[in-house]
Predict the structure.
Amino acid sequence: MQQGYAAVLCVLAVLGLEAAALGECELTRLLQDKLQYEMRLQYMKHYFPIDYTVQVQYEEVLRPSNITRLRNGTVSEAALRYLWFHVSSQAVLRIREVLPEKHPSWKYTQELCQLFDALGKEYSKYRQTDVEAVVADLVKLVHSTGAESRRKAVRPKALLDNCLKVMRMLYGAPCRWEST
């Protein structure tokens, strides 16, 4: 039933009827459903050539260890979620950039982009001046175009694996998700 609920909300999000009314917890829960292991494996590994990588900026790889380090540096949870949103949405866009429209993973990445767009509306109230300087600087680096020298090759599935792990770290307790 949960997958049926997610499908209905995705359709509504596509139509633009309910996406703005959903809060962070609901949207991240939908993202969590979309980022199930089987889906990541199918769309980001099986539908790509063996050892295929995407070129991303160094700052676009956000791992749980990065979050732990920033937490120990007393960065607020809201700022960490803001950072996660920007890094993860940029990672999905990087994956989508390399896909032709007829690729089997195109629709999947399109749905992820739509969920991130809806989540972006939730984060539109934040400004970079409202978050800690270290997070604001990282967000600027993620969106900068001159950081071509700081690129690394990452598998598409690894980008989404990190997205999900960090999302669970940041939203699991506040949104009262059961352990999955």
